[in-house]
Amino acid sequence: MNSPYRSDKPLTFVLIHGSWADVHFWDGISAELRRMRHTVHALPYAGHDNDPNRRVTHAMIVQSVVDSIVRQGLSDIILVGHSFGGTIIQKTVEVIPERVKRLVFLNAFVLPDGQSAADQLPPAFVSAFEQLRAASPDDTIALPYPLFREAFANLGSKEQAEWLYRNTPVEPAGPLFEKLDLKKFYSLSIPRSYVYLMEDNVFPQTDEYSFHPRMSSRLGLYRLIQGSGDHMVTPRYEPGHVARLLFMGARD
């Protein structure tokens, strides 16, 4: 019997992680998508992963992603962004729209034209991040454990949350506060989907601050896929569940 999560023609996924993460965020999900016989590229990018330089701009991040896609000759791709990765795929598709079949936002930022990721956060978060940034030696932000536990890993056990936190890198602060020109993004007609893990507590569960419907509604006409899950624990410990949701968002 054919799996309902396989396409007649395998899809090509390009996966872009978010803040306080690295390319290993996608390890389990990538394995599950490959098990479904899809092609997967989880891309590292500037200021993160193995790049020792944390003083990067958003444009440098986007250029590193574009360079990887072009260098590997990828086309007809499903471009997926998680969390802050949503801002990256918004700008990446502006540069190489001809290579993108569909955009999929996984509990991801969708910025309005002229705003930054920080502009989307409650004032208390912004104030805390500014203080952490100022106190760091290299303009980065390290998440305090209580914030990580309650907001990013709320569905996990104590052991799961602690393991994830030990493996959480610091985040370059600069790109979070950059206001982005997204006029071209909003002129594109490339299909887009929003995959929403419903117990995600990174944002307060209000219409004013939320991944869905606040972020998702900015996409105009889009496909909505919803499932249970939080920001960090579910992708790590239930990768098959998240992979299936991504496929439903990506399929024709």
Q: Any overview of this molecule?
A:
This protein has a single domain (12-250), classed as Alpha/Beta hydrolase fold, catalytic domain (Rossmann fold), CATH 3.40.50.1820. Helix content is 34%, strand content 16%. It has helices at 27-35, 58-71, 85-95, 123-135, 145-152, 158-166, 211-215, 233-237, 239-250, and strands at 12-16, 39-42, 77-83, 100-108, 140-141, 171-172, 192-197, 223-227. The strands form two sheets. The chain has a six-stranded parallel β-sheet, sandwiched between helices. Helix 7 links the parallel strand 7 and strand 8 (223-227). Helix 1 crosses helix 9 (239-250) and helix 2 crosses helix 3. It is globular, with a radius of gyration of 17 Å. The mean pLDDT is 96.
Write the layout of secondary structure elements.
Blueprint: E1 12-16, H1 27-35, E2 39-42, H2 58-71, E3 77-83, H3 85-95, E4 100-108, H4 123-135, E5 140-141, H5 145-152, H6 158-166, E6 171-172, E7 192-197, H7 211-215, E8 223-227, H8 233-237, H9 239-250
Parallel strand pairs: 1-2, 1-3, 3-4, 4-7, 7-8
Antiparallel strand pairs: 5-6
**What order do the strands of the largest sheet run in, or round the barrel if closed?**
2-1-3-4-7-8
Element-level helix/strand string: EHEHEHEHEHHEEHEHH
Give the CATH architecture.
3-Layer(aba) Sandwich
Number of helices: 9
Q: Under CATH, the topology is which?
A: Rossmann fold
Task: Tell me about the largest β-sheet.
Answer: 6 strands, parallel
Structural class, judged by helices and strands?
alpha/beta
Number of strands: 8
